[in-house]
Amino acid sequence: MRAIGIDLGGHKTAAALIENGRVLQRLTEPTPGREPDDVTSQVAKMARILGAGPECPVGVGIPGMLDSLRETALLLPNFSGWNNLPVRKILSAKIGLPVEIENDANCYALGEGWGGAAAGLTDYVLFTLGTGIGGGIVINGRLLRGFHGMAGEPGHLAVGAGEPCGCGSHGHLEGISGADALERNAEGMGLQPDLKYLWTRRSDPSVAPLWDRALDHLAKGIASAVHLLDPQAVILGGGLVKGEGFLDVLRPRVIDYLASPFKKTLDLRLSLLGNDAALIGAAALTGK
Fold first, then answer.
1. pLDDT in tens, 206-217
2. Where are the alpha helices (DSSP H) in 22-101?
3. Domains along the chain with CATH numbers
4. How many CB atoms lie within 10 A of CB 141?
5. Residue 275: Cβ-neighbour burial (10 angstroms; 0-12, 13-18, 19+)
6. 3-state class of 22 per DSSP?
């Protein structure tokens, strides 16, 4: 069966026609600002280009917290004006058929479970390390949404102190180790805010403090998730993990924060599907 998966991002929106977990056709366009009408119109246009219809339903990954019924966006930290917006109703009206929505990182987790790094696993945690930090939790083969629908937000683990977070609070992992936060910190240190370049210079005395702090807090967040959930594996995806040797640098830091029994069971893996994971997971929401 075929379905369309769409991944709404702060800088770009990706869409793909998916059949049995395989990408048949894809589209990628710059996200047109943050205004709900502009963005939802773009999503609808992309869905129609890919052939949305009764036999080709649509699932959309939304970068934020949703209500338990998956109807309303409660908080999109990087999209002002979207809070309490009935996103599912708006998208369904513009596309002309029912649409399924889910947190984008949850979609990523579903995609990795279908045919990626978590294939065959029943219990795993996903961290997406990009502009911010998202995540998804699968327990006993089912996506963990929580009572209010907002479970699986590792980017908002309180591992810091007064660092501002896009959600409006402070001290959250995303506000320390997310790409946006890293770029702000780099500029504040007088460094070029190019994370790919800075990763290659991570041993330089002027650059090392930037990565030491970010990786230390990320390790604390991962270790906390492992202690809380005892997963078979922790999957890491997103742009930051593409740096050469990222996993080798991070793993010993995570192990250092783990209680001794967990040191033996830690299985830290990189995403196998990359950006396709969120598209495949979004398509999977439709059940097609």
1. 999 999 999 999
2. 36-49, 87-95
3. 2-107+276-284 (3.30.420.40), 120-270 (3.30.420.40)
4. 9
5. buried
6. strand
Tokens encoding 174: 């995303």
Cα-based distances in Å from 213 to 26, 65, 165, 178, 203:
37, 27, 16, 12, 13
pLDDT digits (tens, 9 = 90+) for 85-125: 999 999 999 999 999 999 999 999 999 999 999 999 999 99
User: Can you state the percent helix, strand and coil of the chain, rounding each to 5?
Assistant: 40, 25, 40
The SS3 of residue 118 is coil
- pLDDT tens digits for range 186-211: 999 999 999 999 999 999 999 999 99
Inform me whether the pLDDT recorded for 287 exceeds 80: yes
Instruction: Give the DSSP H or E segment for 85.
Output: none
SS3 assignment, position 96:
coil
Integer Rg of the chain from CA: 18
In this structure, what token pair is assigned to residue 142?
């089912």
What's the rounded Cα separation, in Å, for the pair 261 and 269? 19
Position 242, amino acid: K
Q: Is-contact 157 173, C-beta < 8 A?
A: yes
Query: Burial of 88 by CB count in 10 Å (0-12 exposed, 13-18 middle, 19+ buried)?
Result: buried
Q: Give the Cα separation of 137 and 141 in Å (integer).
A: 10
Cα gap 52→44, rounded to integer Å: 9
